[in-house]
Design goal:
Elements (H helix, E strand, L loop, with lengths): L4 E6 L2 E6 L15 H9 L6 H6 L8 E4 L6 H8 L3 E6 L2 H14 L3 H4 L3 E5 L2 H7 L8 E4 L14 H10 L5 H9 L5 E7 L12 E4 L3 E7 L19
Parallel strand pairs: 3-4, 3-6, 4-5, 6-7
Antiparallel strand pairs: 1-2, 7-9, 8-9
């Protein structure tokens, strides 16, 4: 894969600039303005589908490990909803964008109150080295997969991320690792009509307009060879 992108500083922020012909523009992480600011204010709070999928409940603070952080959008939303969130990103370029976004946002007092952290690591290796005392309640996975429709490349972020990191070809292995670590559940975000990552059926499916959340619940007797229910419920 030939990468035509580079990191540059524009207006005091780090951006991923693409030299691709007809490139849609620079990509950067901004937790204070734009899409994320709008979603924080008008996104629906704990009534959002992602909140239901993760299992957010009053007076319960969940620890969430986002093992495919990307541009940090879902991790940010979960942090604003009260979760302790760790973003894990293996791409040094995407990690640098996230780090820059966090640094710029840290000047805001309300942002300082969020529990949103970032680590640079390969998620599968990170999970294998994680101390049992630090297992998260929830592991969140939003893998990047080859798309059949060219229209999926319309969004500039998607085009930029694909150019830099390619597709997540080890997503099934990541899911299996997550299932042995998460204390409460594993949540996998997928395109609405996309196949599941493995032949394991999700316990619950939260269906949205264009995407869905496949939820794998830990049972009371779960161990490293998890036993899952086969019930698949559409709770849209």
């Amino acid at each position: 894969m030939i990468c035509l992108s580079e990191l540059i500083v524009v207006h005091d922020r780090l951006v991923l600039h693409s030299s691709e012909k007809n490139a849609p523009g620079d990509v950067y992480v901004d937790f204070l303005e734009g899409t994320l600011a709008h979603r924080k204010k008008y996104g629906g709070g704990k009534n959002q589908l992602i909140a239901k999928a993760v299992g957010i409940k009053p007076k319960i603070k969940l620890s969430v490990l986002d093992v495919t952080a990307g541009l940090g959008r879902d991790a940010f939303v979960l942090a604003t909803l009260g979760c302790d969130v760790v973003m894990c990103e293996r791409s040094p370029i995407i990690h640098a964008l996230l780090e820059d976004g966090l640094k710029r946002a840290s000047s805001e007092e309300w942002f300082q109150q969020l529990n949103l952290k970032l680590i640079h690591a390969d998620a599968i290796y990170y999970l294998s080295e994680l101390n049992k005392n630090n297992y998260p309640d929830v592991i969140y996975i939003d893998p990047m997969f080859p798309e059949k429709m060219k229209t999926a490349l319309v969004k500039k972020e998607m085009r930029a991320l694909r150019e830099v990191v390619g597709d997540d070809v080890d997503s099934e292995k990541l899911l299996n690792a997550a299932l042995s670590i998460a204390k409460k559940r594993v949540v996998v975000k997928r395109a609405k009509l996309a196949p599941t990552l493995t032949n394991k059926k999700a316990d619950v499916v939260y269906m949205g307009k264009s995407s869905r959340f496949d939820v794998y619940l830990r049972t009371a007797h779960a161990n490293s060879s998890l036993d899952y229910k086969s019930t698949n419920a559409d709770l849209s």
